[in-house]
Amino acid sequence: MFFVFLFVYACSSDADYSAKIEDIDRNLLIKSVAESDVFLDFILEHKLVMEQFMVYTRRLSDTELSEFKYNVNDDEYIQKIVEVTNLSSLLQSLEIKKNCLLADAGYGKLNQEERKILFMNYFEKPMYTAVKTRGEILNLKCYEQYTAECNRAERQCSIAVLACACVGSCACVLAAYLKLNDDLANAKRDFENCQNGK
Fold this sequence. Notes:
The protein is mainly alpha-helical and 198 residues long. The protein is 79% helix and 0% strand. It folds into 2 domains: 35 residues; 159 residues, no CATH class.
């Protein structure tokens, strides 16, 4: 009876140890993908497209922005937007970086949950300028919420871009950036309300 207990205990200890080793291996895999050139190249290219897109959308009136959102599935309209914004070469480069990441062996070994962890833990924090004026006291809690929301919005956008099946200047990619634009505007509005005690 004593030997049976030892055997069962030893087996369960081995199983626990194996599970811990596998967790460590999976975490190392996630970290190695996060440090890989293909992941970093995709993130950098995504940020370049995002910045160029934001520059364009900030110049639009509310009416023009509404028209853009309404026509996001119109290929001719989207093509005109891409020409006006000079996004064509950036979107083509983003498509290449996206395909390289999707074809990467390490990234391919990650399951859906691990891919979420990759973007949650290793997505580079954005470089936002402070949303305050001189002399204004910045509420740290409000600013932390603002940066957390901006980071979340950017991560979700990059994941949405990766999920797009179309290539280049397609509606799916631009819709992801339009959603990001809305999410960032909402984050800024919430920050300002928080700062004003609303």
